Write a sequence for this structure.
């Protein structure tokens, strides 16, 4: 079984994925695969974005992020470089026997939802996401808002997900909602 979990920046999709992992699923974290892709595709990325994104011989994600999150065309350039490799890597991992979760903000945009038996969209009010981003990532309000603005809102992708969970309560509330979703799809918790 493969469950897709998606949502925008700081929506709670990582908490949902971690809970599913506690229930015995193996998690494919597409964000982490993206970090791997930065190294695998480093030379191609530097050709497009310049040497100034390098620190200590590696791509500095903060420097790259400042370049790409300020311009949707720059994001598209980066995605054209890293997404094909990332998609192949996700497919390779979930093709192995077992129960999997694909945790991906861009589950829909990367067409990874086609690998899933069902998908969960995690939604949260914008202000909560901004505050989580400031707290979790130590970034400014403006940077958190830029990251949210760079993503397609979940409401525009809802027809691609099987169920949407509104994450505006406690972590326990979120886990309870996930448990109910799993039961709905015939998975014993």
């Amino acid at each position: 079984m493969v469950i897709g979990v998606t949502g925008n920046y700081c929506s709670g999709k990582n908490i949902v994925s971690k809970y599913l992992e506690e229930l015995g699923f193996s998690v494919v974290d597409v964000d982490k695969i993206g970090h791997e892709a930065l190294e695998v595709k480093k030379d191609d990325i530097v050709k497009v974005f310049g040497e100034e994104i390098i620190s200590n011989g590696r791509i500095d994600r903060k420097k790259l992020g400042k370049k790409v999150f300020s311009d949707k065309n720059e994001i598209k350039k980066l995605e054209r470089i890293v997404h094909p490799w990332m998609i192949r890597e996700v497919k390779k991992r979930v093709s192995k026997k077992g129960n999997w979760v694909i945790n991906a903000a861009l589950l829909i945009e990367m067409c990874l939802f086609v690998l899933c038996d069902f998908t969960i969209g995690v939604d949260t009010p914008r202000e909560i996401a901004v505050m989580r981003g400031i707290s979790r990532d130590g970034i400014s309000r403006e940077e958190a808002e830029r990251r949210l603005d760079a993503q397609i809102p979940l409401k525009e992708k809802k027809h691609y997900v099987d169920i949407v969970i509104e994450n505006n309560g406690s972590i326990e509330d979120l886990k309870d909602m996930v448990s109910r979703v799993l039961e709905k799809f015939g998975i014993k918790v």
Remarks:
- The domain at 2-184 is CATH 3.40.50.300 (Rossmann fold).
- Helices lie at 13-22, 30-40, 42-49, 61-68, 72-94, 126-137, 141-149, 171-184.
- Residues 3 and 167 are 18 Å apart (CA to CA).
- The first strand starts at residue 2 and ends at 7.
